[in-house]
Amino acid sequence: MSSGNIWDKLQAIDRRVFYWILFIALMIPYLRPIGFPIEINAPAKGIYDELSTVQPGEVCVLSINSGVSAWGDCLPAMVACIRMLAQQDARILVWGMGHTDIDITWQEIMDRSPELKDKVYGEDYAFFGYLPTQETTIALLAEDIRAVFSLDRYSTPIDDLPIMEDVNGADDVRLLLSSDTGDVQGYYIRQWHTKHGTPIGSIGIAMNASGDLPFFLSGDLFGLSGGSRGGAELEQLAGVPGEAITTMDAISVSHLLVVFAIILANVGYFATRGKR
Amino acid sequence: MSEVYKRELVFLVAGLVAAVMIVTYFLDIPVLNGLAQQLQVWALIIQLMAIGLGAINLVRVNYRHMQQKTEGLWIFSAWFMVLFAIMLLLGLVGLSTGSENAIYSWVFANVYTSLSSTLYAITGFYIFSAAYRAFRARNIDAAILLIGGVFVILANAPVGAVIWKGFPIIGGWFNISGQVPAMRTFTITGALGLLAYGFRTLLGKESGFYGEAGQ
């Protein structure tokens, strides 16, 4: 291809050139933040609005069904939601399925949520750990949490946790947030929302957002945070700026570069079309 | 017990369990509710046992690769066995002392987390390169996909609205009016297919779930 004209060369740029361009371009906004304004969209606003109505003492569940590889997409939104719920003195229950690393994710959420430091474990929040199962178990959790968890993650009997007083199943839960890289949120919609009416909110990776959107529009999800953009919107709405807002500049740069690559390839393609 | 009876028994049990679960999903019958809950507990126990079986199977498969010196695989199998043994040992030490082993936690938090995040982040580079190589307007369909994709990309990135206020509006239109109906169609047809599968299972016409697929 080296003997071709500039249009031929435009179509055959080595992929390693793109890797380097992206690598260098992504560093710029981290070294010198640009601060593009972030517009709020209805799905993320839905989560904020529903969380704003939670009253002190009401029980909310965070189901962490995403692994550490999805931290970039899901962690900021989870942190923003937990911080909001803690500020409103909600009782928070945390468990997760599908990923064995949820201990690390929960630790990371706690580290980033100063509001939790004033809370008492077992009274204001509780962590039940990893549950290696599927929809059947989510259905069972909706009916009887104690049939699934007899102990918390630290081996404390569930009935010794004051937070679990009068909490038996989905009917006692004010709302559930499901952080997903897969389809666990669908199980909650079927087994918790449709059957018991528990409001479900979704914190998913960007790739899932298009699949989750119909459920938000139909009202099965009260809100939806898709990828780091959703996290940035929630951080802005909740007034807890964090990692997602910082990431938005890098998202802008990388997305612009993708558009630039598409234009570059197509300019070369159309310029040489007559020759083919 | 003959093969025919064994087959019929499997279908009978599957059919009865499915009937109980379907009825209790839609109707509130206290006697059946208790039974359904018990069945769900059994399912949970079976699923947990399956994880143990999965671990044993993983060791068996990798041990076989090592034993047979399978070309291109045995070295990875050996590496797996070493790491499996280390993590198992550290986990068991933690279990015996009643608290989590600090080294186990360190490995999980500092090795697994970094590797996992890196693998996911690398896809960004592939997407960038793939967008250049694959997104070409070779025909009208590809051109529509390309234009729609560009608008959605710029609607998702905050810089899109800075460049032109119309990007989020048009990108949002593609998202809501373009992809949502298609996604609804997939969801509804998938659900109908699942219903059909459920009925076939109930009627004993679906044998794949107990190992008869393709026979």
The interface involving the most residues is between: A-B, 61 and 52 residues
Quickly count the domains of chain B. 2
Query: In whole angstroms, how far apart are the ends of chain A?
Result: 15 Å
Q: Give me the number of helical elements of chain A.
A: 12
Helix content of chain A: 40-55%
What is the averaged pLDDT score of chain B?
87
Instruction: Using the coordinates above, name the CATH class of the largest domain in chain A.
Output: Alpha Beta
Uncertain parts of chain A = none
Structural class of chain B: mainly alpha
Number of beta-strand segments of chain B: 0
> What is the alpha-carbon Rg of chain A in Å?
22 Å
Oligomer: heterodimer
Shape, principal axes of CA atoms of chain B: extended
Q: What's the main sheet of chain B like? A: none
Helical proportion of chain B?
over 70%
CATH level 4 superfamily of the largest domain in chain A: NAD(P)-binding Rossmann-like Domain
Gap between N and C termini of chain B, in Å?
21 Å
Order of helices and strands of chain B: HHHHHHH
Low-confidence stretches of chain B: none
Q: Report the strand count of chain A.
A: 6
Bin the strand percentage of chain A: 5-15%
What does this structure look like?
The complex is a heterodimer of chains A (276) and B (215). Chain A has helices spanning 6-10, 15-31, 42-52, 71-87, 102-111, 114-117, 135-143, 145-148, 184-196, 206-217, 227-238, 243-271; strands spanning 59-65, 91-97, 125-131, 175-180, 200-204, 221-226. Chain A is of the alpha/beta class. In chain A, strands 3-2-1-4-5-6 form a 6-stranded parallel beta sheet, with helices on both faces. The model of chain A has no long low-confidence stretch (mean pLDDT 92). Chain B has 215 residues and is mainly alpha-helical. Chain B folds into 2 domains: 1-99, no CATH class; 135-209, no CATH class. Chain B contains 7 helices and no strands. Chain B has helices at residues 3-26, 30-67, 74-97, 102-134, 140-156, 158-163, 166-202. In chain B, helix 1 (3-26) crosses helix 2, helix 2 (30-67) packs across helix 3 and helix 5 (140-156) packs across helix 7 (166-202).
